[in-house]
Design brief:
- It is a single chain.
- The protein is mainly α.
- The protein has three helices and no strands.
- Helix 2 runs antiparallel to helix 3.
- The longest helix has about 40 residues.
- The two termini are about 45 Å apart.
């Protein structure tokens, strides 16, 4: 019996079915390879779900804004004490990147908050509760 080098060795015993199922290989010619199983249908979020998510995102945005403000204040009040030009350049670049990344996080969570509130308003206006299936 010759086998292909990429093929798995034959399996015998009580674990043959579980191994064949785990590798998505049929155990016999009568059992074809199963196709993708349909998952549960997704439902549209309710306006309350959107408002809850926007509240959480808004809280994170406010926290990130306060953190950004404190970081910027700390960097402004504590200058880099060095006479080396390279040290001053690298320090300035790092400080700019830290404030920029913090501000980016603030704006991302802020935009998510606005988007979720807009989605909640859209769902209220259209009158679609959370029991409508989506196309996804």
């Amino acid at each position: 019996m010759t086998t292909h080098p990429d093929s798995a060795p034959p399996v015998s015993g009580s674990n043959a079915d579980s191994i064949a199922t785990a590798t998505n290989q049929p155990t016999s010619p009568q059992n074809p390879t199963p196709g993708p199983t349909p998952g549960p249908t997704k439902k549209m979020p309710s306006p309350l779900d959107c408002l809850g998510g926007s509240g959480i995102s808004g809280a994170i945005a406010v926290g990130a804004a306060l953190l950004t403000q404190k970081i910027a204040y700390t960097f402004a009040t504590h200058p880099i004490h060095s006479t080396n030009r390279l040290t001053l350049s690298i320090g300035s670049a790092v400080r700019t990147l830290v404030v920029g990344v913090s501000a980016l996080g603030t704006f991302v969570f802020g935009f998510v908050t606005v988007g979720l509130i807009a989605l909640a308003i859209q769902l209220i206006v259209k009158g679609q509760p959370g029991d409508q299936p989506t196309d996804a």
